[in-house]
Structures are given as structure tokens and as C-alpha cells.
Amino acid sequence: QVQLVESGGGLVQAGGSLRLSCAASGRIFSIMCWYRQAPGKQRELVAGISLLGRTNYADSVKGRFTISRDNAKNTVYLQMNSLKAEDTGVYYCKADHAYWGQGTQVTVSS
User: Fold this and answer.
1) Local structure of 74: helix, strand or coil
2) Per-residue DSSP letters for 13-34?
3) Cβ proximity of 69 and 53 under 8 Å
4) Which pLDDT score, from 0 to 100, does residue 97 have?
5) pLDDT tens, 81-104?
6) How many beta carbons lie within 10 A of that of residue 94, not counting itself?
7) Contact residues for 46 (Cβ-Cβ < 8 A; gap 6+)
8) Are 2 and 61 in contact (CB under 8 A)?
9) Residue 48 phi, psi dihedral angles, 5° rounding
10) Are strands 10-13 and 104-109 parallel, antiparallel or unpaired?
11) What is the pLDDT of residues 36-59, one digit of tens each?
12) CA 25, CA 41: separation in Å to the nearest integer?
């Protein structure tokens, strides 16, 4: 059974950092992505990583966020630095463009 469990969200001041984790189970996924959804806005892609480590980022987070994965642990991470108020939202993990986690809330206070 496929399951994605996010953790690591919380409340942080602007300029601070958080590290999100997404633990996957059930199978190994080729593509792992982080999405986020701010209140009243559509869900948007933040970053993605392939099984071999190729990454892509939304322009709004380039240079501040880093996506990585540990295939042995079947876990993907999102290191978020220099956080801004506009980074606030629910962050979701998505696997192979098909499976979603339950989300974790990130709130950045200005």
C-alpha cells in the first residue's frame, strides 16, 4: 500500500529555516515532488527530484530551497532557507505524479 507521510512543518520567523521530510512506503518512486498551497491560491509545484537526483525548482524558491532524497530510506527532503511570508502554505509531497501525502503546514511570520 502506497503511503506518503510529511513532517517538519511549523511556525518560523521570516529569514529562518525549516526542513521538511516525506517518508514513502509501498514502493520506490521515480519522481518525487513538493507542492504547496497558500490560502485562496492554487496548489503549485515547488521542487522535484528524479531517482538519479536530477532536480528542478520553481523560480520563486531557486537559491533558497533544496530538494534531496535518500533512496535507502525512501525519503525526500526539502530544506527551506531564507523563508519569506509568501512561503506560507500547506506543503504536500507527491510521488510519480499520482500519489499525495496529507500535507504539512508551514507558516512564516513577517
Assistant:
1) coil
2) ETT--EEEEEEEESS--SEEEE
3) yes
4) 87
5) 999 999 999 999 999 989 999 999
6) 21
7) 33, 34, 35, 36, 57, 58, 61, 65, 78, 91
8) no
9) -140, 155
10) parallel
11) 999 999 999 999 999 999 999 999
12) 29
Decide if pLDDT at 109 tops 90: yes
Read off the C-alpha cell for 66: 533544496
Identity (one letter) of the amino acid at 32? Answer: M
The residues facing 63 across adjacent strands are none
- Cα within 13 Å of Cα(97), Cβ side: 1
Average pLDDT on 12-20 reads 98
Determine what percent of the chain is predicted with pLDDT higher than 70. Answer: 100
3-state secondary structure the chain: CCEEEEECCEEEECCCCEEEEEEEECCCCCEEEEEEECCCCCCEEEEEEECCCCEEECHHHCCCEEEEEECCCCEEEEEECCCCHHHCEEEEEEECCCEECCCEEEEEEC
Sign of CA dihedral 62, 34, 31, 72: positive
User: Which amino acid, residue 52?
Assistant: L
